[in-house]
Specification:
104 residues, mainly alpha, 434 Repressor (Amino-terminal Domain), 2 domains
Length: 104
């Protein structure tokens, strides 16, 4: 679980300090969680989930299930986008918005 927690932190492009702050904990506790020396409580998971962390993945190793009618190609694209750092995701969103607005 610690390795997946670290993966999510890196995906969101956050330091241990910033990520720990999302969950209301200190940097040393975040490091202990990532090393598997300590385990988070439900309050921590609730707080990091609100910040965009895929808590289901952190706990189970499985990504959020999709209830949409997306095609397999669309699901693959969304999964690939989901693992990009948050800053890159924002850049892609701005690009798509700009392209969409320019076609209108």
């Amino acid at each position: 679980m610690g390795a997946r927690l670290r993966e999510e932190r890196i995906r969101l492009d956050l330091s241990q300090q910033a990520f720990g702050a999302l969950g209301g904990i200190e940097t040393n506790a975040q490091g202990a969680y990532e090393r598997g020396k300590r385990f988070p409580n439900s309050t921590y998971f609730s707080q990091i989930a609100a910040a965009g962390v895929d808590v289901l993945y952190v706990i189970t190793g499985g990504r959020k299930s999709s209830t949409s009618d997306n095609s397999p190609t669309e699901e693959k694209l969304l999964a690939e986008l989901d693992v990009l750092p948050a800053k890159v995701q924002e850049d892609i969103k701005r690009l798509v918005t700009t392209l969409t607005d320019s076609e209108s």
